[in-house]
Amino acid sequence: MAVRHSPVDAYGSYKVLHLAAATTKVMAGGALVDTTSATAVAAPGSATVVVGSVANLRVGMRLAITDGVGVAELVVVTAFDPVGVTFTAVFANTHSGTYSVRSLVGTWLGPVIFNALGTAMTLTLYDGHPSLGGQTLAVITPASAPFPFAVACDQGLFYTYTGTTAGDVSVHYVAMPL
Questions:
Q1: Contact 140, 122 (CB under 8 A)
Q2: In the chain, domain spans
Q3: Per residue in 127-162, pLDDT tens?
Q4: What is the Cα–Cα distance from 54 to 7, expressed in whole angstroms?
Q5: Looking at domain 14-30+105-176, does it have CATH number 2.60.120.340?
């Protein structure tokens, strides 16, 4: 279980995820690792993949492997090489194409503020990646009011922001260890 923050953290402890562009792809909010790989995982088992960055990566970290070709899955880092920009994990599925590699970071979700409204936009917030069993927290078609959330996302904060013309949105959160 995640280490939970109080329902009202000091405002200065919140980080801000700024959204100003629409995306239909499920994105991570507050992930310590948010990169991609094009290294094919040809068979289930231990594999080493090249990633765009190993910043913040550590042994034992759980990573969501999504998008690309292959069934989404969670893997645990067994080794990483900062010089070669690789990590090793045991995969249950095959993967090819360019796929996303994101850490799962527990998140305390605070206020969501629409600073400038877009046109026909919908913000969907998830506790965990929906391809990995994540649950929808909220589907917001914004008005001008803030949305004062106080929710723990034990599987990490993920989102989509879809529609015609993006506005300017600030999602406040506090990262929690898992």
A1: yes
A2: 14-30+105-176, 34-103
A3: 999 999 999 999 988 766 677 888 888 888 999 999
A4: 32
A5: yes
